[in-house]
Specification:
2 copies of one chain form a homodimer. In chain A, the strands form 3 sheets. A 7-stranded mixed β-sheet of chain A has the order 3-4-2-1-5-6-7, with helices on both faces. In chain A, strands 8-10-9-11-12-13 form a 6-stranded mixed β-sheet, with helices on both faces. In chain A, strands 15-14-16-17-18 form a 5-stranded parallel β-sheet, sandwiched between helices. In chain A, β9, α5 and β10 form a beta-alpha-beta unit. Chain A has 3 domains: about 130 residues, NAD(P)-binding Rossmann-like Domain (Rossmann fold), CATH 3.40.50; about 160 residues, Succinyl-CoA synthetase domains (Rossmann fold, 3-Layer(aba) Sandwich), CATH 3.40.50; about 170 residues, Rossmann fold (3-Layer(aba) Sandwich). By secondary structure, chain A is of the alpha/beta class. The longest helix of chain A has 19 residues. Chain A contains 17 helices and 18 strands. In chain A, α5 crosses α10. In chain A, about 60% of the residues are buried. Chains A and B meet through α5, α8, α11, α14 and α16 of A and α5, α8, α11, α14 and α16 of B.
């Protein structure tokens, strides 16, 4: 396999493009790299610029003015000057060019299509690899490469290969507050040189990457891609969202990345055959990735459900069974155990457990641990019933106490534990912040946390499907 | 139909129960009534109490010590003294008793079952109606009756009849930040006297109630209930969530409200036959109720989709079509219209529209209005792409400008408009508050707003299903 160190660990990066306006692409890349702690040398290149860009880095009028080598160029220039820039890159002997510039092949204009081809061919002929065009490029926290301010500096096990940078932002936005961390995110746009299959092959052998996720609108070479996907899925969990599943979606994909979406039926079959997990939305992807990232393997699908309130016990049981989990009733020996250990309320313990029926936190704590550790259950589903509890005196403390219990449950059972912490939109911002803290306590303790019980259950079910069906138990 | 004014508009309420502890049920009811601006006379009754409860209201040692009549009693006493309290209620000639007390019939203990029967029979024999036992009772903002601090004082068109108060809290918690407002919420627990059918019949003719929603675990008299449901659904939109759809859920329902859940198959068929809309979760219910509450009738299912970013155009189109909406391509005349009005970017306009391709807000504004008003489209789906936009300078202002556009679109098209405003969990609390404000701007302008594009689309699809299939276009 080809080493992509020159892509993911460049020693020097030059961002080429207009520096006018705080939101111009070139200025954003420079500020983001600085902000992400990029460890190599960073340069701005702009014909019309002053010597320094906002204290970020030195600015030069052309690539050749940069003293010393440049490994990686980010091209934020109009399409009309891309060819000139390609020549400069060749003269400077750069190793890779990320072409941010769009409105090329995806416009379906034959002239622009040819321009894109010519530029990429010219660079390739001189041994320079190309990311894009029409994309945001690479995020790798370890080397301080990024394309979004909110992407964390902390690294993690998940790689996301995406034909849409918007979806990459969306995925991170849905996951980072709950502990989703990435080895790499690659937004590769039109994929004219380096494409989905090249990156997928790389990620399959990438030691930083334990879980691979993909957003794909279309592939260049279906046969080669499926072969790569099969090899990837044999080695690591692979989660795929196919964009352009519908007629209108496929039409949008063509405008977006010049992709031919292919028929959804063949995708469904192919993904199942190679053992990749298909998801229908970025939200579902974020939720499943968190389960894959945090949870230990599940031994089965029998759930112990810890929640508060009678309606909750019904809803949670219904949702578990709708998603293919089983919620077993308590066995006779477990019933007796509860009556022995909790003479007053032991007879009220069921599965799901209604926290509110047990009277106090100590009883709930004991019940939760007994249930979760029991051999009758493989996984644990927990709800904090946030809105209800916030209506009480010291509601936030009560929620924190429940989270204490759930964390203890995870430590003592060593089973997969998912927790729902709803973040209501009507509360004061101080309460909101406190709930975010509880969320962080959960994932930092190794629990997978979700904003609703249903999402927790659905993600857990997808996780079990992976271990059960895909990995063969 | 029986008048239930004595239930929903009592002139005097007495809360009977221990006043020890700020979270004791009796103290909570008293504080909540005070907080909700209850307009009638409010009394506390407790054997062991001082003259006044926290400045809320006077306290008496028994019902008979209260000067003047008492219409409505909230009983928060242990089961063992319920019968004595029933006698006091009879002596005092109260009109209705809400029995908060639980652990009666739902325990399956024959003795407690009999006790519940005897108490209810005794009260009924003297013309007193009973709400419960084992429930939170009534919320009616108009009269200041409530059972949760966060329930709004503002009134609204939606009634929720629920065998679970937890689910009532959950529904309100999911909806009030997005404008969901209630005429009444009725938590009726075991429904031993007044049951689901009595309340449903009442709500069908209740002028305050324009939309009826139900959470049902089981019904007392299936035939009578279905007849009432058919009459209700012929008159108003009726949304039903059936709890205990699964085996484990049905088991939980029996422990919760002594309900026999019945087979789900017969519920599915019955609900479809009478024209009620079934939902699978409280979240789905909240989302659909908001659509029913805010949106004008839809003339069809052809969606104009306004969003930002290429991946978004693909995902939103896929989601629309997965939920049964249609996302038509632009007609030739509309294409020409865009090229006339926007010489520079008009050729980039598609459906879905990619905001980011249009360059500036003015172009997006014009495009959105042209699309939304066009006869080719029946409904409008809008995404603010919050996470992406927040990464830019003045991101919040950009989001506000998009919301401006969406509000104008609604005003000028008079079509149903749904908006997605994602509330990320990783942002500063000030940004979170600002997004909540944008959310409020939307619903106050008559748009239905959702925390994700998928939920917006799903709710809109349910709303169209209602107008198309249930109401017959």
């Amino acid at each position: 396999m080809e080493s992509f160190d020159f892509l993911f660990d460049p020693q020097s990066v030059a961002v080429v493009g207009s520096l006018r306006g705080i939101d111009s692409p070139a200025v954003r890349y420079l500020r983001q790299y600085k902000n992400a702690g990029f460890k190599g040398k960073l340069y701005a290149v702009s014909r019309k610029s002053t010597e320094h860009i906002e204290g970020v880095c030195p600015c030069h009028q052309s690539l050749k003015d940069i003293p010393g080598p440049v490994d990686y160029v980010i091209a934020c220039v109009p399409a009309t000057v891309l060819m000139d820039l390609a020549d400069e890159c060749i003269d400077k002997q750069v190793k890779a060019v990320h072409i941010f510039t769009g409105r090329l092949r995806e416009t379906s204009d034959p002239q622009l299509e040819r321009l894109e081809q010519d530029i990429v061919r010219r660079l390739r002929a001189c041994g320079i690899r190309v990311v894009g065009p029409n994309c945001m490029g690479i995020y790798r926290p370890e080397s301080g490469m990024t394309f979004r301010f909110e992407f964390p500096r902390e690294t993690g096990p998940v790689a996301f290969l995406s034909q849409s940078a918007g979806n990459a932002g969306h995925l991170a936005g849905l996951g980072i507050g709950r502990g989703l961390r990435f080895s790499k995110i690659i937004s590769y746009g039109n994929g004219t040189d380096l494409n989905e299959t090249d990156f997928l092959e790389y990620l399959t052998d990438d030691a930083e990457t334990k879980i691979i996720s993909l957003y794909i609108e279309g592939v260049r070479d279906g046969r080669r891609f499926l072969k790569a996907l099969a090899r990837a899925a044999a080695k690591k969990p692979v989660v795929v969202m196919k964009g352009g599943r519908s007629e209108a979606g496929a039409r949008a994909a063509t405008s977006h990345t010049a992709s031919l979406a292919g028929s959804q039926l063949s995708w469904d079959v192919a993904l199942r055959q190679v053992g990749a997990i298909q998801v229908e939305s970025i939200e579902e992807m974020a939720d499943l990735l968190l389960a894959l990232m945090f949870l230990p393997p599940a031994q089965g699908k029998r759930a112990a459900v810890l929640c508060g309130g009678g309606g909750d016990t019904v809803s949670s049981a219904d949702q578990c069974e709708a998603h293919g989990l089983v919620v077993p009733a308590l066995s006779q020996d477990l019933r007796e155990e509860f009556q022995r250990q909790l003479p007053e309320v032991g007879s009220l313990v069921n599965n799901p457990v209604d926290y509110s029926a047990l009277g106090d936190q100590a009883a709930f704590d004991l019940t939760s641990k007994l249930l979760a550790r029991h051999r009758d259950f493989d996984v644990v589903v927990c709800d904090t019933q946030v809105v209800w509890r916030l209506g009480y005196h010291n509601g936030l403390d009560r929620i924190a106490a429940m989270v204490d219990t759930f964390i203890k449950v995870e430590k003592s059972s060593l089973k997969p534990v998912v927790v729902a912490i709803h973040l209501p939109d009507f509360i004061e911002s101080a309460a909101w912040s406190a709930l975010i803290d509880q969320q962080a306590r959960c994932w930092r303790a190794g629990l997978a946390v979700y904003p609703s019980l249903e999402r927790a259950i659905k993600a857990l079910a997808g996780f079990i499907y992976y271990h059960d069906v895909v990995r063969g138990g």
